[in-house]
Specification:
heterodimer; A: 326 residues; alpha/beta; 8-stranded mixed beta sheet; 10 helices; B: 307 residues; mainly alpha; MetI-like fold; 71% helix
């Protein structure tokens, strides 16, 4: 199967005058097949949001250096002109953001924000666009959609707003949707509804989905392939059930061990990954995770681990967790 | 009457369910503010008087009444009498009519100057804030230079450039003073909008740049600028009066103007101080009215002051 999106060696660095660059994304490569749901997982600061913004070309032009390639249908999005990219955004690929309140324009009714995309990309106008907007709102489960078209964002609940944002993002049936932590700002019951809605819509429209999250629960329920990011690099990639059954990278292993389990004996202490991201070593001549890694050996602080692929699993580690552990 | 927290909360929830907008909420807060009411009453009265000035004023601004001076010793100025509630001025014109008619001039000059300054400032602020880069740097450096010059000095310099002072030169001079204030204010809030989530979201949907700027950034950024405009109205009126006072204003004797009346009254201060008192009081009261209204408006719109 040919990939819909091919990200190759994507690197994003924030440059500052007279100071070394901050490399947020450091050679990330992954594929997304048509209709596939791919997860990008990692803690704060691992580069997952920057990766998505780089794919959408939404990073500021100044002070940021992006290299590598992001091919969609064989066209490198990174080399497109500003107007070519604008024509694709919302039509071929679109994005749902984290905070549903601040991602809607507070002074414009919801309806206009939906029809704006329809007018822009599908040349709809007037009543036709309004009708289509109402249908979209209905499709994402907003009750009384006709009346809601005239509502302002502050008159909707958080869950409703996120539904409206999803409706807007999917209005022109893009083939790729990037969801950047779409449920972080919502409470747990609404989270489940929104995730259900997302997977349903993606299946229905055949769009591929890149799910960006720090929540392994979201990944478990939704994604087919999972990329685990650490310090701007993919440290492990595998099919979802393989990753959950036999995590090989100590970071993935640690993440899974730090989830509270219902079947754990009461009083058992929850494991945590020691340290924080600030302890990272530079990838240039070490493994960034080494200072926090329980399995670190001498090599880890001296040699950069290379990504090795075997049996559909990518792993970047000198001393991985044995495959038969657990 | 004390309002409990629960009552306020209920009022707020009622607002939300009734779908009342932020504007009407700000308006409701405004009505509870004594300063706002005082400001609104003064401004309202001023606007009514100014608009209806030709109907209220019993006589024309240039009309002279030599008969008033007939029984007086030379150099004396007639005081209040039948048909002339404030007497006449040094040239025998009805003083009451002139004070009233001057309100019209003041409103016209103040509003026009502020509007022109506002429009030019909005254009500059939008361009600078939306595009950034060297355009922003250039426009803001020019703005900085204009801001560095005291406003009255700037207005005097601009007005003095004109070959002959007229109402138009006063309007332009006063408008130029307002431009950098509006431009800088708008540019700042446009920059904040540029980083905001909903603008990034609109961009991520492929909305055209012009639409992002005009539909998503400007309407969200313009609030403080509009509030500033009501405050600037007060300073515009003061600046225009000051220009006239200094002889850089409208020289047409057929039109009455408070600043010019004040300047001419100086000579007769010992004979009839009222000639100076009424125009001065009018300028102060009107400027105070706009300032009170503008300040309360700013507080009402400021989300931090939301109760």
């Amino acid at each position: 199967m040919t990939a819909l999106l091919e990200v190759r060696d994507l690197q994003v660095a924030f440059t500052r005058r007279r100071e070394p660059d901050t490399v947020a994304v450091d050679g990330v490569s992954f594929d997304v097949a048509p209709g596939q749901v791919v997860g990008l997982v990692g803690e704060s600061g691992c580069g997952k949001s920057v990766t998505s913004l780089a794919i959408m070309r939404l990073l500021p032009a100044r002070g940021v250096r992006v290299s590598g390639s992001v091919r969609m249908d064989g066209t490198d999005l990174l080399t497109l002109s500003g107007s070519e990219m604008r024509a694709r955004r919302g039509r071929d690929l679109s994005m749902v953001f984290q905070d549903p309140l601040s991602s809607l324009n507070p002074v414009i009714p919801i309806g206009l924000q939906v029809t704006e995309v329809l007018r822009r990309h599908r040349g709809m106008a007037g009543d036709k666009a309004r009708q289509a907007a109402a249908e979209l709102l209905e499709r994402v489960g907003i009750p009384d959609p006709r009346r809601r078209l005239d509502s302002y964002p502050h008159q909707l609940s958080g869950g409703m707003r996120q539904r409206a944002l999803i409706a807007i993002a999917l209005a022109c049936q893009p083939r790729l949707l990037i969801a950047d932590e779409p449920t972080t700002a919502l409470d747990v019951t609404i989270q489940a509804q929104i995730l259900g809605l997302l997977s349903e819509l993606v299946r229905e429209t055949g769009a591929a989905l890149i799910m960006i999250t720090h929540d392994l629960g979201v990944v478990a329920g939704l994604c087919e392939a999972v990329n685990v990011l650490y310090g701007g690099r993919i440290v492990e990639r595998a099919q979802r059930h393989r990753l959950f059954a036999t995590p090989r990278h100590p970071y993935t292993h640690g993440l899974l061990r730090s989830i509270p389990r219902l079947d754990a004996p009461p009083g058992e202490e929850l494991e945590a990954i020691r340290g924080s991201v600030v302890d990272n070593l530079p990838w240039a001549h070490a493994c960034a995770f080494a200072p926090r890694c329980p399995r670190a050996i001498e090599t880890c602080t001296e040699v950069t681990p290379v990504a090795e692929t075997s049996g559909g699993r990518l792993l970047r580690c000198h001393n991985p967790v044995p495959a038969n552990a657990e | 009457m004390t309002v409990t927290w629960a009552q306020r909360r209920k009022a707020r929830l009622d607002d939300l369910s009734a779908g009342r907008s932020l504007t009407s909420e700000a308006f409701r807060r405004l009505r509870r503010e004594p300063a706002a009411i005082a400001g609104a009453v003064i401004v309202g009265l001023f606007v009514v008087v100014a608009a209806l000035a030709p109907l209220i004023a019993p006589h024309g601004a240039a009309e002279t009444f030599p008969q008033l001076q007939e029984n007086l010793r030379p150099g004396a100025i007639p005081g209040p009498q039948d048909g002339f509630p404030l007497g006449s001025d040094q040239l025998g014109r009805d003083f009451f009519s002139r004070v009233i008619l001057a309100a019209q001039q003041t409103l016209l000059v103040g509003v026009l100057a502020t509007l022109i300054g506002l429009v030019v400032g909005i254009v500059i602020g939008t361009v600078a804030g939306a595009f950034g880069g060297w355009v922003d740097t250039l426009l803001m450096r020019i703005t900085d230079v204009l801001l560095a010059i005291p406003s009255l000095l700037l207005a005097i310099s601009v007005a003095a450039l004109a070959a002959s002072p007229s109402q138009t030169t006063v309007i332009i001079a006063v408008a130029i003073v307002g431009v950098p204030i509006f431009a800088r204010l708008l540019r700042g809030s446009m920059l904040a909008q540029r980083e905001s989530d909903h603008v990034v979201a609109a961009t991520s949907l492929g909305v055209k740049r012009s639409a992002v700027v005009l539909r998503h950034m400007l309407p969200n950024a313009i609030g403080p600028v509009i509030v500033q405009a009501t405050l600037t109205l007060a300073t515009s009126i003061l600046d225009a009066a000051a220009l006239s006072f200094l002889g850089l204003g409208d020289a047409d004797p057929a039109r009455a103007e408070w600043g010019l009346m004040l300047a001419q009254a100086q000579t007769y201060l010992d004979v009839r101080p009222a000639l100076a008192f009424y125009p001065a009081a009018a300028i102060i009261v009107v400027a105070l009215g706009f300032t009170l209204l503008g300040e309360s408006l700013r507080e009402a719109i400021d989300p931090k002051g939301r109760r």
